[in-house]
């Protein structure tokens, strides 16, 4: 339909499609032509529906984070910090290797090729990762206050370690590493978090 969106256009389906495209190809690697072809609409319709490419990317990132935050929050309510991290890491492996979607983590993959010209995209992705790190840090600080972690535990360093493990698993998943091997690595990484001392 020249000049408009095609009949049956679904904004949510379009967002999912665009999200997976950015996730697979990165922000810089995804052109307006790529987006309009994948979504089945012309450029004016894309701009009318979602704004600029940057606006669309932000919407897809919000969608991605909403879906992934639930798994993090569910893991963080486990009774101990060790169990929380174990669930978080092994759950992330399942997400990173789920069939029918790009492998790895969008907050890592989408920014790998982004340089200075698109620094705001890097900032958006960094903020998304920081949000997750803060959630993990809050859980460790609670565990420390509750006596679940040994006195003197460096919660900040521990949270950094866990997130580094998450993104390492993401890169490995995107490289095609088998789920079984990544799960074993996640279990090993979780061992750095002391088990309950109570």
List keywords for this structure.
68% helix; mainly alpha; 9 helices; 198 residues; Tetracycline Repressor, domain 2
Question: What do these coordinates show?
Answer:
The chain has a single domain, classed as Tetracycline Repressor, domain 2. Helix content is 68%, strand content 0%. The protein has helices spanning 11-25, 32-39, 43-50, 53-76, 81-96, 106-109, 119-146, 155-174, 179-190. The radius of gyration is 19 Å and the shape is elongated.
Terminal-residue CA separation:
66 Å
User: What is the fold-level CATH name, i.e. the topology?
Assistant: Tetracycline Repressor, domain 2
- The computed structural class is mainly alpha
CATH architecture: Orthogonal Bundle
pLDDT under 50 segments (min length 5)? Answer: 1-8
Query: What amount of the residues lies in strands?
Result: under 5%
For the record, the CATH class is Mainly Alpha
Global shape: elongated
Count of distinct strands: 0
Q: What kind of assembly state do the chains in view correspond to?
A: single chain
Percentage of residues in helical conformation: 55-70%
- Average predicted confidence as pLDDT: 87
Radius of gyration: 19 Å
Q: How many discrete structural domains?
A: 1
CATH homologous superfamily classification: Tetracycline Repressor, domain 2
Listing every helix as H and every strand as E from the N terminus to the C terminus, the arrangement reads: HHHHHHHHH
Keywords: DNA-binding, Plasmid, Transcription, Transcription regulation
Pfam families: TetR_C_13, TetR_N
Disulfide bonds: 66-105
DNA-binding region: 31-50
């Amino acid at each position: 339909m020249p000049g408009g969106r095609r009949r049956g256009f679904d904004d949510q389906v379009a967002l999912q499609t665009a999200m997976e495209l950015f996730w697979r190809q990165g922000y810089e690697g995804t052109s307006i032509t790529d987006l309009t072809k994948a979504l089945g609409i012309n450029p004016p319709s894309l701009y009318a529906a979602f704004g600029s490419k940057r606006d669309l990317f932000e919407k897809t990132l919000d969608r991605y984070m909403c879906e992934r935050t639930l798994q993090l929050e569910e893991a963080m309510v486990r009774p101990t910090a060790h169990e929380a991290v174990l669930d978080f890491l092994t759950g992330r492996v399942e997400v990173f290797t789920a069939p029918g979607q790009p492998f790895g983590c969008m907050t890592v993959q989408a920014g790998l090729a982004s340089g200075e010209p698109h620094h705001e995209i890097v900032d958006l992705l960094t903020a998304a990762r920081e949000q997750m790190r803060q959630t993990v840090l809050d859980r460790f600080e609670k565990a420390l206050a509750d006596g679940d972690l040994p006195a003197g535990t460096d919660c900040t360093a521990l949270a950094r370690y866990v997130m580094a493990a998450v993104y390492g698993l993401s890169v490995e998943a995107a490289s095609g590493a088998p789920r079984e091997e990544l799960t074993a690595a996640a279990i090993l990484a979780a061992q750095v978090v002391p088990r309950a001392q109570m």
